[in-house]
Amino acid sequence: MSLIKPFTGLRPARERAEDVMAPPYDVLSREEAKQKVIKRPWSFLHLSRPEIDLPDDVDQYAPEVYAKAAEMLASLQSDGILSPDPHPIYYVYRIWVDTHVQTGLVAVASVEAYDTGRIKRHELTRPEKEDDRMRQIDAINAQTGPVLLAYRADKMLDTILARTAESPPDVNAVAEGNVMHQLWLIIDQDTCDTITRAVDAMSSLYVADGHHRAAAASRVAAQRKADNPNHTGDEPYNYFLSVMFPHCDLHIFDYNRVVKDLNGLTQQEFLEKLEEAFQVTPSPHPYRPACSGEFGMYLKGRWYRLELHPNRIPTAAPVAKLDASLLTDNLLDPILGIKDLRRDDRIDFVGGIRGRSGLEGPVDRGEMAVAFALFPVTMDELIAVADANEIMPPKSTWFEPKLLDGLVSHLLD
Question: Is position 247 within any domain?
Answer without folding.
Answer: yes
